[in-house]
Design brief:
6 helices; 2 domains; mainly alpha
């Protein structure tokens, strides 16, 4: 799992795992944007991804592989990166300015402090 949206974040790990296990490797599941999965399983898309992950585990135990359909559901994109990147950057900048970790930011239910009209409108859109 990785918080970043790009699949390439796993390239080194994939290479190492394949080097270690080669053809003995039954399956690999790499999930990008995973931080969002903790937001709550009530969202239909997140709920489906989590259910597909459980299904993938069952398939792996029973069939020694994970079906392409299940992997596709597991890897289903959660967000539009181009839309979310400015909000993520804004949230991180707020953490830096307030000298808190992202965990503390979330625990305190803080809101990103917009630094431009674009991020202000994006924060408003999320709020509504």
């Amino acid at each position: 799992m990785a918080g970043f949206p790009e699949e390439s974040v796993f390239d080194q790990l994939k290479s190492y795992i394949n080097f270690l296990y080669g053809d003995r490797l039954a399956a690999e599941i790499y999930r990008t944007s995973a931080e969002i999965l903790r937001a709550g399983s009530s969202h239909p898309k997140i709920k489906d991804i989590l259910e597909a992950t459980v299904q993938g585990g069952k398939e792996l135990v029973e069939l020694k592989k994970i079906s392409p359909e299940t992997l596709e559901r597991i890897k289903n994109p959660i967000t539009d990166f181009e839309k979310m990147a400015p909000l993520g950057n804004c949230a991180w900048q707020t953490c830096i300015d307030e000298k808190v970790t992202m965990g503390e930011f979330q625990k305190r239910k803080m809101v990103p402090r917009p630094n431009s009209i674009e991020t202000f409108l994006a924060v408003m859109q999320m709020g509504f």
